[in-house]
Amino acid sequence: MTPDAATYTTEELLDMDLSMEEGDWKPTPHGQCLAEVLAEHNIVQGKTVLELGAGTGNHTILFARQGAEHIVATEISRAFADTTRVNVERNVPGAPVECRVADWLSTEGEFDVVVTNPPFCMSGKQNRRYYIDSLILDAHKRLKPGGVLAFVQSSMADLKKTLRRLDENGYDAEVLGERTGPFRDYYYEVEGFMEESRAIEGGFETRDGVDYETLSVVKATLRSYAPPASAHLPE
Ligand SMILES: C[S@@+](CC[C@H](N)C(=O)[O-])C[C@H]1O[C@@H](n2cnc3c(N)ncnc32)[C@H](O)[C@@H]1O
User: Fold this and answer.
1) Which of 42, 97, 140, 156 allows an S-S link to 197, with CB 3.0 to 4.6 Å?
2) Which domain does 173 fall in, by range?
3) Domains contained in the chain, number
């Protein structure tokens, strides 16, 4: 059991002892932004949560401390999922967390909340927004009616496009919080990334010769919807 969410200060919610192996995803400003904003806005208390790409468990631990009823934390390999599990056990022993190996949304269950810091710059897909767009199109399959999808994204991933696509796909979306910070060094080295980002209105800003992106935490609530009986639906 973890203590009641109300017993933690924001600082305590975010104070974690994280270990990681070579190759694990080390927390970055994106993950830090998601953690800080969700520490200020508890969207998981008493909820079932699916966290995709949990990495070091930096958000899993936060959600457990915030009183999530049950958390399924996924990773793409057993080794990465073990890192999540070890850090959860050390920081929130006995918390109701199940660590699974799963490819993105390809896992079982329906949840109150789906949350993630999705790959973007290094998504390795021709559509760099692939994981964001996949959430917008398919997270509803893992959400209960009225469920919440929450994620962090860079201005370089086109926030306007995200908000428009969320609305088109049946979500009421809002930005819970934002942080602006300088680019990571590798942004200039990833082929095509700067060119794509320059084409996005509001993608980044340059001040005194330094490039800055804005990170936004998006919370999107699935509107209720019943397709017509004649629609093409799987059995
Ligand atoms: C941007 S990192 C975020 C990690 C951690 N949540 C954080 O914020 O520090 C994305 C994570 O997703 C995982 N990942 C990448 N592709 C995935 C997939 N297809 N299914 C599940 N996880 C995936 C990576 O291993 C990585 O840990």
Assistant:
1) 156
2) 5-222
3) 1
